[in-house]
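User: Please predict structures.

Assistant: First:
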Amino acid sequence: MSNFIVSARKYRPQRFQDVVGQQHVAGTLKNALATDHVAHAFLFTGPRGVGKTTCARILAKILNCENRTKDYEACDECASCKSFNENASFNIIELDAASNNSVEHIRALTEQVRFQPQQGRYKVFIIDEVHMLSNQAFNAFLKTLEEPPPYAIFILATTEKHKIIPTILSRCQIFDFRRITVADMALHLKAICVKEGIEAEEDALHIIGQKADGALRDALSIFDRITSFSGKKIRYSDVIENLNVLDYDYYFQITDALLAEDAAVILNLFDQILRKGFEPDIFITGLAEHLRNILVCKDASTLALLEVGESLRERYRKQATITPSTFLLTALNLCNDCDINFKMARNKRLHVEMALLKMCYIHRAVQAAGQEKKTIDLRKDPAPAGTNGTNAAQTAVPTPQPPKTGNGNAMPLDRNEMIALASGIRQGVKKAESIPLRLDAYDQAVEVEEAHKASLQSRLSLENIQTEWAAYANSIDSNLLRMALTGAELHLDGHILTVTVKSITDRNHVQGETLRLLDALRHRLHDMTLKIEVTIDETKAREQVVVRPARALTSKEKLERLKEANPMVDELLKRFDLKLEE
């Protein structure tokens, strides 16, 4: 018979300092041992394979150790420790509640509590999967758990704390175990490889850690399987082949093709992935994870969230430098929509291919959206002062469908049509309605329009600014903002417009509107170099400071002060027929 022992048992921690990823639990239990504040009941809860039962066994071993070390670990030399290591200790009773969940089993357990330990100070009862006990068993266990003899300690372990009744929870010290990170698992596997004389690539160990999904026991089981497959040398290619994991390189190639808008390469790569036996939903989930990793690499402060090896980390960092954030966010949104609607799609492959093609032309879609916004702004822009007052929005140009040639392609525009289109966008003439509008033609038309705007003579003068300023103020719905703009004094020095207001409140109102106001003035005055600075007239600001009187003001005096500070108060009183109570 083979003497092989699986790694999960062979390298099971025997001391708290060997426990992986649960330092918060180990530290708290050590402090309790140091101060002799050990509770009579503990509840260890958390995901599977993170060390709950292991920590329970370590604690039970330390409690009965006769010669604890200075850091409160078991000595492994006394009679109690040796009997524990040989699974021959009568002071530690382990019960699997999954198969012993009836009232009779709990009664048998409480009978054992009556007998004092034969050796050592404590009798420790470890109940695993305690949430599997029936309600009757929980009720039979309550009294013993609440008032046990001084030598009895209960350690309960569960993966589903919400299934335990509150009366049990209130009688236990609860310790929440965390999922073990990929970095911690990779480091632990690397230490095992050194002990076993196995050569392993760092990326391969990270893949094993990711596949384990936070459970170290699962990672060790996968590690044993990979070792049986590849022997004394664990390579990244062997791991992804054995675990049926899609190679990172495919995602890097697809991302490069998406940025290059090469739809043919993308579809061919997706076909290769399907031929290797991978499901489309697994691919789209992996692509979303890849794009998320690139987004994480855009900022050095979030680089620690990337759970990959150093070589892959460098590849992600390089690709992040050439990938725009807008592309990543839009592509992630498309991946999410594809994943949500995948189950309802009849043609799964076409569903994913459509999502990939949409990602391929994200840049063009963003440009089209920006150009559409420019068109809307041009149509809504009022005519400059001095013209006949015709608003371009009144003659907005519709978006006609482009005519088709015999082979179904859109007909190209000549230069005269392009100029007419730009002129139609600018002036709203009827002629533009008959001109086909396409994205490529629209790009050229906008360039012509921008050149036209640049050729316009600047209308920057204090008189024109005051006219446009007043027109803008009259279009504001907010009374306070309109009063602040109307009461401001304007001074032009070169290309800097100084706006002087009477109070801090007016300054805050004007500053909140500065960006929209500046954009409107630049567009109407045909001068993109205009800047605005907002200041306060200190003299008028001091005049508005109200000196607190030595005596308390009457209601009538307070009302008069309010009227002086804000003339709108008087209008408010008249409109609603309000009177001051005597």
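Second:
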Amino acid sequence: MIPRMRGRKTVSHSLLGVFALSFLTALGGTAPVQAQTTPSVAFETELPRTLVFIAEEGEGQVATGDFTEFFRSAGFPLVDPALAHTAAQRDLVQRALEGDEGAATELGRDFGAQLLVIGRADWGARPDPVQQAAMTATSEVSVRALRLDRGEVIATAQADGRRLEATEQAARTAAIRDATGEILQGTSFVGQLMNDWAEREWDDTSYWRPDPGSIPAEVNEAQTRTASGLAILRADVQPSEQGTTRGLGVVERGDRSSDVFNPVRLEGVVVGSAETVEVDGQEAMLEPLDPDEAVRLGVDPETARRFWAELSLPMSQDTVRVVAADGSGSTVETVAAPRVNERWAVVIGVSDYQDPEIPDLDYAAVDAEAIYDFLTSEAAGSFDPDNILLLTNENATGSAMREALFVFLQQAAWDDLVMIYFAGHGAPDPSRPDNLYLLPYDADLSSMAATGFPMWDVKTALRRQIAAERVIVIADACHSAGAQEGEGWGMDGDNPIAGSFSELFTPSRRLTLTAADTNEFSFEDARWDGHGVFTHYLLQGLRGEADLNRDGIVTFTEIFDYVNQRVSEATGGQQNPQRAGLGDIPMAVVLDEVGSIRR
């Protein structure tokens, strides 16, 4: 078995036709010069992910198309504007178009853009007074570019157009195209935004919204000792000895009239001046926070403490109120949901790739189908088939994956559980190795930025579109069996995709499990029952082998410990699964020989 490695090659970005000339002209601030040549330009800085959103009455979307084609030709990675048009909230869009920069910033960030070009294309048409059979159209296109880490406008432009054509549609299109061409060719609009992008360093911290329920989300306002903040690290229903239910989040919730109580353990962090913490009216234990843990959580150990409580939760109650109080009587509170409400999943597996330059895999799609089958079983709490989306091979296109993460999983509420599983290739862009991609079925190695599924988009969906506090991401990417060495898959000994998954979340009950470490690759072979070695042991563990304390429950931590040990042993230490995230989440219950929950 030869690991699939990713080679690196350097290419320059070419600006096509008149767009190339206008881009160079804009950078130089001089008037455009018409020419038939197509110059080649190598950019010294990585170009921003760009979303073009120009409101235009009618179905043509001429201005959006012209701007999008310009940026595409210039090598900018583009955010799919169709997705933004269908999923963005209407009031946010309207406010952004009316000049609300805060709304525009939120709009762009919600879809993973670093640069938002937003504006309007207004037009009107009437019969020409001289040539009665023709139509005269006039247009006005106004745009502004926002840099979305800072929420600032960095370039503006406005231009008019006028055309006489045989039909209204032709006249409108030509007039708008004249105006957009003037902005792109005859103004410094592009030069302004590119100069700003090159001169000011990107600020990741201000761009990304903390994960729902994470430490930063809950305690950002409580770092000054004058206020308190609460964040939940763990809220799990424990095994019950009462016979009718295990009471786990992975098991369907009980009858509201039931007199069954489930034991719950709740753990969290309080920051600030709080002297007491109550959980469901019961005083919690307060303990010093270990300095190393405080660093991982991103809080000051001098002002942060851990709290925990154990209580009995009746089946008629789904949430627990947590209240922190200081000496003056000031309080802050949050709500925890020990039981999972609904379960959602997106399961993706790609074995067969459209691009012949991408080596096919033997078992990635089979792995995904097996995970789907498990999630719809009683052991996993029987995910509702309407709440789980399976995408394999030709159905796992880039657009389908984006729709799944940005739209389908938007339905999950804060007290739901979301699971995302991916099996297939992952790779850096050969021309820009720092840009990492999962490879959908229709990925094209020669055009990775346009056809790959960026890890940036995975992060955006998790941070901006998915509200659930409990999220588990499992990635069996960078498979390795049977690969042939060749350009784009050279033996460079690095697997950056695995490391990128570990950086998806801020400290929260959002967890990742990856098949291999950053300098390793994931193996697949017939000896593991026709699965990748990672998914083979993942399934065995979920079916009960990972229940290390024999309590009938398989948790995320138990799965990791089991899979890490078994995969390492099976591959002679060449592949070592990794985890990231805080806390724990129950994932399965153990069934007996007849398919009932083992008690």
